[in-house]
Amino acid sequence: MSISNYDARILKAPHPVPGAPDNWKRFFSFNTDAKVIGIQYIVTSLFFLLVGGLLAMVIRGELITPPADLVDPTVYNGLYTMHGTVMLFLFLFPILNGFNNLLIPTMIGAPDMAFPKLNAAAFWLVPVFAIVLMASFFVPGGPASSGWWSYPPMSLQNPLGRFFNGEMLWITAVALSGISSIFGAINFVTTIIRMRAPGMGFFRMPIFIWTAWAAQTIQLLGLPALTGGAIMLLFDLSFGTTFFRPEGGGDPVLFQHFFWFYSHPAVYVLILPIFGIFSELFPVYARKPLFGYKVVALASFGITVLSLIVWVHHMFYSGTPQWMRNVFMLTTMLIAVPTGIKVFAWIATLWRGKIRLTTPMLFCLGGLFNFIFAGITGVMLATVPIDVHVGNTYFVVAHFHYVIFNTIGFGVFAGIYHWFPKFTGRMYYEGLGKIHFVLTFIGATLNFLPLHWAGLLGMPRRVASYDPEFAIWNVIASLGAFILGVASIPFILNMISSWARGPKAPPNPWKAIGLEWLLPSPPPAENFEDDIPTVINGPYGYGLGKPLVDDEEFYIRRANEA
Amino acid sequence: MTTSNSEVTLKHTPGHIKHDGHNLTGFIIFLCSESIIFLAFFAAYIVLKLTSPEWLPEGVNGLSIRMPLINTVVLVSSSFVAYLAERYLHKRNLWGFRTVWLLTMAMGSYFVYGQYVEWSELAFGLNSGVFGGTFYLLTGFHGLHVITGIALMALMLFRSFLPGNYEKGEAGVISVSLFWHFVDVIWIILFVLIYIWQ
What we know:
The structure holds 2 protein chains of 2 kinds. By secondary structure, chain A is mainly α.
């Protein structure tokens, strides 16, 4: 490229959205820049990871000895309900929306989201429903305590007879979270459909975009069913209807259908972007193109379609007729096909690659290892006889923690480390990162692996006291939980100190291929501003020597000089 | 690699252009999502009606169909009227659009009034078993959408007086019109489920 041509275009310094404060204060304002909103989401949700983690440690503290001695069993019911709710609605959903906000516009070369104000409104609903949910700790009767699935008739008890009770606040918070998620989903899907850079056809999109799209489609098609169910539950609880009350002709199992129609696919809403993160990171750190790109992309939507027809596997022991159990056993097992395709593709990507064991790669490998294990117990649980045997035991708890924390949680950490230099402009400290990984892996394994045995031996979930024969598994699990708690210290230390004083990050520290790496670190407010690149090749061209965009030199030089 | 400046400007698209089409795409996605809540309520209605041991509350023999039928005719025809308004706008006949749009709003308001009259004459309430619960839930949730639709139409009517409002396109009116058709289709299903299938 000639110099004159390069000079013909104006180099602009990064600038914030007009009118927005250009310092830390922007994170506390109604800012419409997707990158600010992304960081708002991520920091808020990491705070609630700590809250949910503290609740978990109280739970494990209670379970370290067989009798209920640390907390009252009634309080214990509230603790596990709030632990699950906080982790899902205040940690995982918001943090993945944070990734969507940071990555979707930068990866597809869009200046911002399609609806920036709606995007900011979706974020600011998070603190609102967080306050509603946390307020339930302080109302008479305490927080909701019928578990995160809130089955009637247990959730409809309201023993004190007050209008503002823990359960009512819980339903309100979940409904607000639903509104926030739908705002987000409309935004993400519209942005992906309409705002891709020239030349970026669907089969040139990075896999993260595919998985985010597939996940948000589930939000759009599944979440309203839970909203409908939650509205009916609220009417039963507060306005005297009997939709789910058998004494008034209602059907409590109907709520279970509404709940799981969304809340099983919700797991795929969480894990699909993590599959996206794995698919982004393995090629970078193995220096090889992603194996089977098109199949991996399409498998995401395979999971979307299948996820909407599996929900009854949560209800095998809810009086479900045998034919229905068989149908849903089959559909549930079918999910193993598209996920298996992905696992195969990742391993094939790693195969004979030039692997760099950086912190994000370690978290990815740990997450993949754990996911294979979670997948095996998942297929076991899909089998009706096994599920009827271990249903509502710690085996189920162990399985879904292997999915939710040991896979999704690991993927989240991998994503945070990988894109930290890009969006903060600073490098994190590799040593602290590795300490974080080692402690997390040991803690998570000690915490969740023994629970499989406790469950197989018959220890029921959601109990404050248990038979002494399960003591050994619980002691190991509690030890693991406390190690996980300690693991957050190097993480917090790393994030705060490197964001404040870490070495300045170059635009592309990992030598990764992708539009976001052609931007300066941190990217300016409107990403590529007036020079949106034209994509001329598919993603993951590692070792192929093909440029990703037309005129790539220009963008690399501009990013380096910014 | 050497390229001239003119080629460069062709290759790189400015990112500031705000496409009017985004709003329409986003609104259609929203409507797809919103329809699922209604589908959930319809499913609940069907399941409860088929399985509930005591469907109709004591002293209630069924629903009168006369008033709701008039309402149905008004609402369904208002969808065609809304389409007519859209055509007027498309031809830039602003006063034609405003008149016919106002007529649509009037028909919608008549529907809400008819619903109010019907509700006030009913012998059962929200708490009269699952029949009362599902009846008021479905008609009430739909009624909220009708009221929202009228409010959105009023907003569009107000905006039509702003100078240069349609230079960027008509996505607002098209979206509200779509919303109105959506409310209409939902009502037809609801009418069949609640009034015809007794």
